[in-house]
Amino acid sequence: MILRQNLSPAIVGCFCVLSFLTVLVMAAPWLSPSDLSEVNLLDRFRPPVFMGGTWQYPLGTDALGRDMLSLILRAIQVSLTIAVIGTIGGAIVGTTLGLVAAWIGGILDAIVGTLVDFQATIPTLILILALITVLPSADFTVFVAIMIFHGWDRYARLARAIALSAKSQPYVQAQQIMGASTFRIITRSVLPNAMAVLLVNMSINFPQTILAETTLSFLGVGIQPPDVSLGLLIGIGRDQLFNAPWVALMPGFLILITTISISVLGDWARDLVEAD
Amino acid sequence: MNWYLFRLGRACITILLLLILAFFALAASGDPAQILLGPDTSQAAIDAFREKWGLTLPLWQQFLIYLNGLLHMNFGLSYRTGESALALVLDRIPVTLSLVLPTILLSIALGVPLGILSAMHRGRFIDRLAITLSVVGLSVPSFLLGVLAMYLFSVKLGWLAPSGYVDWSSYIMPVATLSTVGIGTYARFTRSAMVEVMSRPMIETARASGLSEGIIHRVHALPNALTPLITITALEFGHFVTYAAVVENVFGWQGTGSLLIESVSARDFAVVQAIMIITGVTMILANLLADLSYGFIDPRIADLRHRSARRLRTVCES
Amino acid sequence: MNLQPQSQCRAHPLISVQGVSVVFASGQSGSALRDLSFDLMAGEILGIVGESGSGKSVMCRAIAGLLPPSAKIKGQMNFEGRPYPLSDRRLLAGLRGHGIAMIFQDPMSALDPLMTVRRHLALRTPGDPGPLLTTAGFGDPGKILDSYPHQMSGGQCQRVAIACALAREPRLLIADEPTSALDVTVQASILKHLKAVAAERGMSIIFVTHDLAVAYQLCNQIIVMRNGVILETGSAAAVLAAPRADYTKHLIASMPRSRPHASGIMPQTSPPAGLRPIGVPSARHPALRLDNISVGYKTPDGRRFDAVRNVSVDVGEGEIVGLVGESASGKSTLAKAAVGLVTPSAGRISMNGRVVDWSRPEPSWRREIQYIFQDPRGALDPLGRIVHQVRQPLDIHRLGDKGEREAVARARLLETHLDDKLFGRKPGSLSGGQRQRATIARALTVRPRVLICDESVSALDVSIQAKILDLLLGLRDKYALAILFISHDLSVIQHICDRVVVMRHGKLIEEGPTFELFRNPTESYTRDLIAALPRLPDAPPSHLSEQEAAV
C-alpha cells in the first residue's frame, strides 16, 4: 500500500537505472567487445556513433585507440563493485563495533567513541591519502579495505545510538527481565528493529563511497592503469576535453545517473521509514 | 566535572591520536635511511645514519623525539625537493584559503535562505529546486562538476580560461564548483532543521497564544534551527578543504590540495604528513570552538556545568 | 458595538459552535468530528470529557484554527456575536491571543528552550510580566523571570505557558489536558488558579480532560464525547451524578475508587481456583522483600545522588502492595532495582526467603518475578507476532518443546481475555488495552510468584483501565500472586491495593493498609496527596459492584 502510494515516475526511473547498471556489471565480461589491453594506435580518438562515429567502436576510442565500450563496462564493474563491497563491509564493521561498544560500555565504548569522533573531525579523504602514501600498492583489495574505512564511523555512531536507546526501551528491558542473553537480545530484537534505519543509511552512504573512490582514481592515486574505474577514465579524458570530450563525458554521465538515482532512492526510503 | 575542561581534554586526545597515526604511518612508510641515502649506500653508512637520527631507539622514545620536533615546527624535509615540508605547505595555504573562504561565505549566504524558503513553502517550486540542488550537490563528485563546467564554459562557449590564475574571473569556476556542494549541504540541513523545529509543540503553543507566523519564524524557529549550523560549518570546513584539493587539481591551482596530490603520487610522506597534521589540528580546533560557543548560545549547555540534582532526579524518573 | 454592556453578554453566549464536522484527508491521523454544536456563556467553564479517539482535541483545535491543512472543516461559530466560518483558518488566526488562546498537555516542550520566561512574556505583552505570573500561580514571580525552561519543573513550565496564553487577555481559554502530565498536588493548584482567573476576568474556559473527577471539580458545564459525537451535555453535577447516556454511566462506573474489601480482608468474590489459601499473607517469608534498598546515581558534575534511600518493602503471597508517589519520588527506580534493571548501591533483595543478587542472576530467579511496563506499545517488539512474543520466556528458559510452548502461550493469552483472532497479529494493529493484556500474558507464561506493575494502567483509557485492573485482581486470586503495584494515581491504588507505601524524594514516608491509610493518614504529605485527589460526587455503590460483576 505505502509502496504504491509513494511510487512516483522519478522513483521508478531510478529503480530502472540501477537495475540496468546491475545487469551491466554482471554481464560485463560477455558484453565487452574487446580486451582492455588491446591498443590500436591507428584508431585513436574515434568518436562514438552519436557523435558521427562508426559502429566498429559504438562508443568511440580513447587516446590509445582502446574501445571505449569495453573500457566503460570494466570501469562500471570496478567502481560499483568497490562501492558495494565497501558500503556493506563498512556497515558490518561499523554496526558491530557500535552495538558492542554501546552494550558493553566502559573503556571499549570510550575507545570506539573517540575513534568515531576522530574520524568525523579529520577529513577522511586526507586520512586515506596519507594511508595510500605509505601503503606499498593500491590494488583492488586494498581499495575495498580503504572504502570500508571510509564509511565505518557513521554506522558505528548510528548503531551506538540505536543500541543506547534500545537499552532503555521497555521491550528490550522486558527481555532482560525474562532472562534473555545479551546476544539473543541484540540479534533477535535490536538488530531487526534497527535494520530499516541502517539500510537507509547505507543508501545514503553508497553514493559517498562511489564519490570517494572515483575522486581518488580521478586524482591518479586510486585504481591504477591498466585497470580502469569511472573516475580514472574521467581523469584520463579531461586532458582531451578539446579534441575528444566523450572520453570524460560518458563516464561522467554514468556517475551522475548512478549517484543521483541512489540518492533519490535513499531519500525516498528515509521518508518511508520516518513515516512509520 | 567541568564541561569545558572535558571538551578540551577530548580535543587533546584527538590531537594525540592524530600525531600517533602520523608517526606510525611515517614509521611504516619505509626506512628513511634507505630512502634518503639511496639504495647503493654501504651498510656501515646506513647504521651510522640510523644511530645519528635515533632510529635504533625504542619506538616510544622515537615518538617523543618526533613530538619534540613537531613542537619546534620541524615537520621534516620533503623527499622530492629537500625543502622544509612545513615551508612548502605554508607557501600554498593562501591559495587554498582564497578558494575556501569565499566558498563558505557563498554557501551560507545562498544555502541557508534557500533552505528556509524551502521549508516554509514545502512542495512548491522553491522546495523542489532546493531538494534537487542538494541532491546534485551531495551526490555528484566535485571533480565531475569541475570537468563538466570546464567543458561547457571553456571548451564549448570559450568564456572562461580553463585553468590557472589569470584574473578574478578565474575564481568563478572553482568557487562555483565548490559552492554547489556547499549550497546543497546548507540548504538540505537548514530545510530539515526548520521542518523539525516547526513541528515541535512549542510552535503550536506560540500560535495558540496569538503570536503571528512572522514572529514565530523569526524568534522561535530560526534561532532553534540555526544554532546547529555552527557545528555544521566547522565540519564543512574540513569537507571544503578536501574538495578544494580536487578542484585545485581540476583547474590547475597551486594550493595545498594540489601539493597534497603531487606528494601522494610521489610518496613524499613528509609533506603529506605536514598537510594532514595542519588540516587535522585546524579541524579539531574548529570543532572545539564550535562546541565551546554553544556554552554561550544554548542555556542548556551552559547549565551542564552545574546541573542540579533536582533536574537529574526528573531525568532518572522518566 | 460594545454599547450594550453586560446584559447583552448574559443573553448571548460568548461562543456558539454550530455543526462542526472534520474529516482528515489522510485517514488515520485523528478522529473525525460529526456535526457538533454547543454554546458557552462568558465566565463559564466547559469540560469536554472523552477517551482517546473521541475527537475532543480535534474539536478544540478546530475552534482555535490550529488543525493542519489536511483537515477538511465544516461548520461555523459565533464568537462575541460575530460569525466565523471554521474553515477560514486565517480569520481564526486573527482571533488568537486576545479572543481565544490555547494551552496543551506537554508543558516541558511547550516553551522555547533558548528563551527566558521574561522574553516569552515580552513577546506577547509590553506590560509588566509580574502580575501575569502571579495570576498563573507563581508566589514569587521575580524568582522565575530569568529562568530558562530546562531549569523549571513541569508544573512551572505549564504555569508559564498559562501566563503566555493569558497575556493578551483572551475571552476564551482552551486547555487541552493541561494537567494530565503533572503531579496531583500540582494539578490541584493549577486547577484552583484557572478557576480563579475565570471568575476574576469573566473569561470562559474549555477544559478538555479524560478524567471525570477533574471535570467535576472544575467545570460548570460538561460535554461527553465519543467517536466524534457529543453523547451528553449538561451541568457538571447533573451529568456526573445522574448520567443519562449509557456510555457516561459506563465511564463513571469504570472510575477506580475505594472498595470496601480492599482493606486486606479477602472477600467472598475470590474464586476457589487458587492452589493456596488466598489473601493471607504468609508471615514467615514474604514473596518479595526489599530490605533497606538504596539506589545512587552519579551526577554529571561528579556528585552522588540517591534516587532511593533506605527503603524497605515486603509483598506477601496473594497481596497487592501499592507504591505511590509523585514524579521523582524514586518509586520506579525501586521497582527496577527489584528486577535488576537498576543495581542498588545498598540493601538486599530476597524472594521467597532466598536472597537474590541480580548482578549474578540464576535463570530460575528470572522465572519467579516478572514486570509489566507502563507503555504496552513499547514493551512489545514491534516486529514480533503476539503469540511468539508471549512464548518468548519459554523459549529463553527452554521449557517444553515447541508445541507445548505454543499451547501455553495460547492458554495464557486466553486467560487474559485476548481474542484469539489477534494472536497472530503484530502489536501495531492492537489497541492499548489489548497490548497490555498480551504483556500480562507474557509475564504469566513462566508462572511467576511476584509481579511488578510499573504504572501499568496509567497510559490506558478509564474503561480499559478498569478491565485491566479487574484482570489483575482475578489473576492475583487465581495464582496467589504477590503484586507490587506502582502508580502515581491514588484512586487506582485505592481501588486495587491491600496495603500502600508512600514515597517522596526517594524516602519511604508512610505505609499501612489501604483503607486505614486513606481514612486516616498520619503524615501531612500523604494528607496533601489525598486532599489533592479530584473526586466524583458519591455514586450509589450498587452501580460499581454491578459493573464489576459484569466483568
From TrEMBL, chain A:
Membrane-topology annotation of the record: Multi-pass membrane protein
Key words of the record: Cell membrane, Membrane, Transmembrane, Transmembrane helix, Transport
Subcellular location: Cell membrane
Record Gene3D superfamilies: MetI-like
Signal peptide location: none
Matching InterPro entries: BP-dependent_transpt_permease, MetI-like, MetI-like_sf
Transmembrane spans: 7-31, 71-93, 100-120, 126-149, 246-266
SUPFAM superfamilies: MetI-like
Domain ABC transmembrane type-1 per the UniProt entry, residue ranges: 76-266
Pfam families registered for this protein in UniProt: BPD_transp_1
Domain of life: Bacteria
Similarity field: Belongs to the binding-protein-dependent transport system permease family.
Name assigned to this protein: Peptide ABC transporter permease
Native source organism of the sequence: Mesorhizobium escarrei
Source species taxonomy: Bacteria, Pseudomonadati, Pseudomonadota, Alphaproteobacteria, Hyphomicrobiales
Automatic annotation (TrEMBL), chain B:
CDD domains in the record: TM_PBP2
Gene3D superfamilies the record matches: MetI-like (1.10.3720.10)
Transmembrane segments: 95-117, 129-151, 171-189, 269-290
Name this polypeptide is given: ABC transporter permease
Cellular location(s): Cell membrane
Primary localization class, coarse: membrane
PROSITE patterns: ABC_TM1
Membrane topology: Multi-pass membrane protein
Gene source species: Mesorhizobium escarrei
Pfam families for this protein: BPD_transp_1, BPD_transp_1_N
InterPro entries: BPD_transp_1_N, MetI-like, MetI-like_sf
Keywords: Cell membrane, Membrane, Transmembrane, Transmembrane helix, Transport
Family (UniProt): Belongs to the binding-protein-dependent transport system permease family.
Annotated ABC transmembrane type-1 domain residues: 93-290
Automatic annotation (TrEMBL), chain C:
InterPro entries membership: AAA+_ATPase (IPR003593), ABC_transp_ATP-bind (IPR050319), ABC_transporter-like_ATP-bd (IPR003439), ABC_transporter-like_CS (IPR017871), Oligopep_ABC_C (IPR013563), P-loop_NTPase (IPR027417)
Domain called ABC transporter: residue spans: 17-252, 288-530
Record's keyword terms, sorted: ATP-binding, Nucleotide-binding, Transport
Coiled coil regions in record: none
Domain of life per record: Bacteria
UniProt topology in membrane: Peripheral membrane protein
Subcellular location: Cell inner membrane
MF annotations from Gene Ontology: ATP binding
Family: Belongs to the ABC transporter superfamily.
The protein's name in its UniProt record: Glutathione ABC transporter ATP-binding protein
Species for this entry: Mesorhizobium escarrei
